Amino acid sequence: MAVLPLLHYPDQRLHTVAKPVAQVDDSIRRLIGDMAETMYAAPGIGLAATQVDVHKRVIVVDVSEHGDNLQVFINPVLVSKDGQCEREEGCLSVPGIYDKVTRAEHIVVEALDRQGQRFTLAADGLLATCIQHEMDHLEGRVFVEYLSQLKQTRIKTRLRKRARETL
Ligand code: K1U
Ligand code: ZN
Fold this sequence. Notes:
Layout: H1 26-41, E1 46-48, E2 58-61, E3 71-82, E4 85-89, E5 99-103, E6 106-112, E7 118-124, H2 125-138, H3 149-165
Antiparallel strand pairs: 1-2, 2-3, 3-6, 4-5, 6-7
Zinc ion is lined by residues 91-93, 133, 137.
């Protein structure tokens, strides 16, 4: 397994819409292993394949206290959502930026697991927020797009400046 380089906002590749996985094979399982290693190394509680410049519909999530409950979603589909909650979000592709986003409080998601088996999961709280955040990545959406234009412009300016300084 390997820690993969992350794309950083405002990289245009973060706006790519990911393609469905046609077959859950060893190359997808290798990608999942690398994504998990990348997420735990960051550290983070979720990661979408988009963030490592792989435009396939794969996300990994681990919101457990001790980082010992990896959840994998291949070709995830939101089958229902209910309620609203506002929660502070961060993003490994937008380092150092945290802000509140309103999302559905309860969701039901359908996906394939690492064996290609279909499963359905009901989620709420941080897990529901994190799954929605990661599914947004697969649509080419970054959480800062929920913020005001003024905040988005400031964030872009700050991250471009930081990228120049670290060259
Ligand atoms: O998609 C990502 O970039 C991962 C992101 C997931 C996320 C966090 C918060 C709300 C919604 C989605 C992160 O993991 S940011 C880092 C973070 O939240 C964290 C890092 C270390 C310990 C605990 C949390
Ligand atoms: Zn993110």
